[in-house]
Amino acid sequence: MEQPLDSAAGALGRAMRVYGVLLALATTTFVWLPEVARWPPYHPPYERMFVAIFFAWGLCLYRAARAPRHNLGLVDFTALQGLLHGGVMAADVVQGHAGHHGAWHLIGDVPLHLSAPVVLGLLRHRVEPYRVGLTRGEALLFLGVFGVCVAVALFGLE
User: Fold this and answer.
1) pLDDT score, position 53
2) Residue numbers in the chain where pLDDT is lower than 70
3) Which pLDDT belongs to residue 60?
């Protein structure tokens, strides 16, 4: 049986449901608006994988909203990926890697992803203050890997 939610957890749960639905619905753009969803060079097998992942993620986020306090890891993932994914997409659009329809990404999926750390992050912090939970060595390792990823994103593999 579900426990009643306090106001902070209730607000987080509602936001989780909204983002869950949005992530699941975003996958339909590959079918209904492929010129908006697809990035050149097109790779249908990769795109189908993307659709599957985003749909599963949206469904899990929606279900996790029943008990937001017990699913803060999924909220953290959603907020962090929003920051990173949205940031990379925005940089790719600005650099011209999104093709002729890059503006669609700047008004569609980029704001969706970049809003997740703001909305979910702030609501999550009201439920339970965020703690990194890594040792200094673990944090340095992850920062090093992140630095390599940023370098690759900025300077490319080409």
Assistant:
1) 93
2) 1-4, 100, 156-158
3) 97
pLDDT for the residue 1: 45
Report the amino acid identity of residue 33: L
pLDDT digits over 47-69, tens only? 888 889 999 999 999 999 999 99
Packed helices 7-26 and 44-64: angle between N→C axes, nearest 10 degrees:
160
**Cβ atoms within 10 Å, residue 117:** 20
Spans of all domains in the chain: 7-131
- Enter the pTM of the model: 0.82
Instruction: Tell me the one-letter amino acid at 125.
Output: H
- The answer to whether the beta carbons of residues 81 and 117 sit under 8 Å apart is no
3-state secondary structure labels for all residues of the chain: CCCCCCHHHHHHHHHHHHHHHHHHHHCCHHHHCHHHHCCCCCCHHHHHHHHHHHHHHHHHHHHHCCCHHHHHHHHHHHHHHHHHHHHHHHHHHHCCCCHHHHHHHHHCHHHHHHHHHHHHHHHHHHHCCCCCCCCHHHHHHHHHHHHHHHHHHHHCCC
Pick from 74, 72, 82, 84: nearest CA to 145: 84
